[in-house]
Design brief:
The protein is an alpha/beta fold and 711 residues long. It contains 26 helices and 26 strands. Keywords: Leucine-rich repeat, Repeat.
């Protein structure tokens, strides 16, 4: 029993249930693939019970072993050549969730070959009843999606896929952080001491300091370390300062409740007062971990945490640029401030050189220049990363010129220093950067690339440049990420296009500005894109108003509808996203020959609605997403959009028929049908989609036959 205790106490973080049970057999996996997989899972904040057959001592451990399996949320067996020689591994397979076939074929595991069949016969002599149940479980292994891996194949990509799948199934709120962290170890230790997780009181830690100094990164690292101890009862609300300007606090309250209650259905919050009551009701009964990132007003804390009746053991972490936001009136729990200081010179130099030299040793001249540049940055991690990435593999003349520019700027003017990187971009790359800053942070990159390609912005190369220079990152979920300082820089660049007249700017994202512009009768040909959210009350746009935006290529609307003849209004629009339109609709000729991306969601348009005229001339359409379209019983006719490459039908609850014209979409590469509850069969024409690379079909519970795949 001592061996078991030593083994389990060394696996995962202390406290809470195991989330993943990792089972394998033999040295062929023990010292290679499974070790790497185990450390990748633990590094992602997942609590792993690692079952190693060679460490088991005596049959008494079986009860403990089965309890560990039962307590785990997911079970990952690594089927290897000698997996079946262990009767313990065979006891475990009844709980298979995510199988990995390591140097074996699924047919081996399904007992179609002698590899596992012979071992099973040996076990059957001693455990006939158990082996009977295991044989049935093994035969059904092919019904569960798994991964195949050969000994001589690369393992890194598969491990990444497995971790992503586990995170998705567990819905762990793991936060991505850069691999190039410098100087954080001591800070993490300091904050962990302040949090004192083992104490039963309620604590709030306020991490404060200037923008770009690393507050959010520190909070993410701590959050990732602590999530295993809080399980599903944790929430990280990012960028509250900006999100509250855009959508108010209601959506943040909804996300907090969804995270803590761990519900797929997000509770709709009508107003912030109701949200305060609901969060108060939930948080008083649960020990939770919550991060409130980038708070700029004390009332945000009050409205997000409710009336402060927090459950013992709860931990709240707040990041803010304003040290005065806490304490606030009525908060009766311990508030511990933690000031973030600039990196010391050695750590700053180390971080800069990682980005500027990519791990190579600098020459003496380069090292002298590097020290001089670092001395101008004020020890700010963001500035060090961006400027270092900018100078990577650049000639000495560029280094010297950059140093001269930095010396002319006050030490604390972060944005002016970051603008040096923006100025190095070509015109197309600047357009992409500004689009991301204004509209696409935390959005999937796929559809945006379609738009930029059509606009001749050359996005593949442009995005690579932006990543290499560090203005943006692509997260593991394929979404854009940008630091708030760089986002603010991009939006400030747009604001400076016209300080007094928003209608003379290229991009608009503040609803008040857009509504004021719509009321004027002046031409607004400089506006390329706008995002209008009518959350307060429905908006109505006439054809005369939209005609004034002669250069509009991106249009995103929420709670907004149209009236008039739009035959001459949408000619240049490449991306149109329309969410939650009112049921009233008085527009005609809603079509565009140039539209490439079309997203319609959360509406009750019926099959005969004029809105489907969008498809009449959509010969360039590449992406179509119909989500929560509750009024349709059949899809539109796809015969006019034969260039379509991506089609999503999601939560169209009354959809019963997919038009057979889907078979004419010879360029379709991605088909996603999810949650269409009344859909009973698929058209046989789907079988003719020769270029289809990904077909996802989930939660269509009435689906009886898939004619496309019969025979």
């Amino acid at each position: 029993m001592a061996n078991l205790e030593a083994r389990t106490s060394s696996v995962g973080a202390p406290g809470g249930e195991y989330q993943v049970f990792l089972s394998f057999r033999g040295a062929d996996t023990r010292y290679g693939f499974t070790d790497c997989l185990y450390h990748a899972l633990v590094g992602a904040g997942i609590r792993v019970f690692r079952d190693e057959d060679e460490l088991r001592v005596g049959e008494v451990i079986g009860g403990e072993l089965l309890r560990a399996i039962d307590d785990s949320i997911l079970y990952i067996p690594v089927f290897s050549q000698n997996y079946a020689t262990s009767k313990w591994c065979l006891r475990e397979i009844a709980r298979i969730i995510l199988p990995i076939f390591f140097d074996v074929e699924p047919d081996d595991v399904k007992l179609k070959t002698s590899l596992y069949k012979d071992s099973l016969l040996e076990h059957e002599k001693r455990f006939p009843e158990e082996v009977k149940a295991r044989r049935k479980a093994l035969v059904k292994v092919d019904e569960i999606k798994g991964w195949n891996l050969k000994k001589d194949e690369g393992q890194g990509q598969l491990i990444k896929w497995v971790v992503e799948e586990v995170l998705d199934k567990l819905k762990i709120k793991h936060k991505p952080v850069t691999e190039r962290l410098v100087g954080l170890t001591g800070l993490v230790e300091d904050v962990m001491k302040l949090l004192d997780i083992d104490s039963g009181d309620v604590r709030l830690i306020k991490i404060h300091g200037m923008g770009g100094i690393g507050k959010t990164t520190l909070a993410k690292v701590i959050f990732n370390q602590l999530t295993p101890q809080f399980g599903k009862r944790c929430s990280f609300l990012e960028d509250i300062r900006e999100e509250s300007k855009k959508d108010g606090l209601v959506k943040l309250q909804e996300k907090l409740l969804s995270d803590i209650v761990h519900s797929r259905a997000i509770e709709k919050i009508p107003d912030t007062d109701y949200g305060m009551r609901r969060t108060g009701e939930i948080l008083c009964n649960k020990r939770v971990l919550i991060v409130l990132d980038d708070i700029d007003r004390g009332e945000q804390i009050e409205k997000l945490l409710g009336k402060y009746s927090l459950h013992p053991g709860t931990r709240i972490i707040v990041t803010t640029r304003d040290r005065s936001v806490l304490p606030i009136k009525g908060f009766k729990y311990t508030v511990l401030p933690y000031p973030m200081e600039e990196l010391n010179f050695n750590h700053a130099l180390q971080l800069f050189e990682r980005h500027a030299f990519g791990g190579l040793s600098p020459s003496d001249d380069q090292h002298v220049l590097a020290r001089a540049i670092v001395s101008t940055t004020g020890g700010l991690p963001l500035a060090l990363e961006v400027i270092g990435s900018l100078l990577y593999q650049k000639p000495k003349a560029i280094w010297s010129e950059t140093l001269d520019k930095l010396r002319e700027m006050p030490e604390k003017e972060v944005q002016r220093k970051l603008k040096i990187s923006y100025d190095m971009l070509d015109d197309y790359q600047q357009q992409i950067f500004l689009d991301i800053a204004c509209f696409f942070i935390n959005e999937d990159k796929t559809n945006a690339i379609y738009m930029w390609t059509d606009c001749r912005f050359f996005p593949e190369g442009g995005i690579d440049v932006l990543i290499s220079l560090s203005p943006i990152k692509i997260l593991d979920n394929n979404k854009f990420w940008m630091h708030d300082q760089l986002r603010d820089l991009g939006r400030e660049m747009v604001h400076k296009e016209s300080l007094t007249d928003p209608g003379e700017r290229s991009r608009l994202w503040i609803s008040k500005d857009i509504l004021e512009i719509l009321r004027t009768k002046e031409s607004k040909k400089k506006v390329q894109a706008f995002d209008l959210d009518g959350k307060a009350s429905p908006n109505l746009i006439t054809n005369e108003q939209l005609e004034r935006f002669g250069s509009l290529r991106f249009l995103k609307l929420c709670n907004t509808t149209f009236v008039g003849d739009f035959s001459e209004c949408l000619s240049k629009i490449v991306w149109f996203s329309w969410h939650s339109p009112p049921q009233s609709f008085w527009a005609v000729n809603m079509h565009s020959r140039n539209i490439v991306v079309l997203e319609l969601s959360d509406n009750h348009f019926t099959d005969d609605s004029e809105v489907w005229s969008f498809f009449k001339m959509a010969t360039k359409l590449k992406v179509l997403a119909l989500k929560w379209c509750f009024g349709i019983t059949r899809t539109p006719d796809f015969s006019k959009c034969l260039m379509l490459e991506r089609l999503t039908l999601e939560r169209c609850d009354n959809l019963t028929e997919i038009d057979c014209s889907i078979g004419r979409l010879k360029y379709l590469i991605d088909l996603n049908i999810n949650g269409c509850l009344r859909l009973e069969e698929l058209p046989k024409e789907i079988g003719g989609l020769e270029k289809l690379k990904r077909f996802s079909l989930t939660d269509c519970y009435r689906l009886k036959t898939a004619k496309a795949f019969e025979g």
